[in-house]
Amino acid sequence: MSAxxxxxxxAAVFLVLGGWALLAPASVIELAITAPYRDAAFLTRFTMxxxxxxxxxxxxxxxxxRWSARSFxxxxxxxxxxxxxxxxxxxxxxxxxxxxxxxxxxxxVMLVLAVLGWRAARAEERQA
Length: 128
Known about the structure:
Structural class: mainly alpha
Mean pLDDT: 97
Number of helices: 5
């Protein structure tokens, strides 16, 4: 896999999950948040849509830039705290449903892609 392919697949995760939160925030809240923490208020939907907009923004930026090996490495390291977030808010404080753990799945996929992208970018940078 090329570094560019890994980067485009990372962008796809942000665009799909972020797009869902941006375009259908009530759906995300209904499916991804457990009943005791679910809130259908305007501000909750607005906040979820804002979260989605930021994810879409990052996804678009990942589409239009070129990441170096360092970019992939930094991205991989910065993903690690999100695994703690997913664990805490699924197992310790049960906010996220099993569908809400799509966030964990997306993070896991992106971590693997970041490592693959880092390896490919390092090889590409050595050849240049």
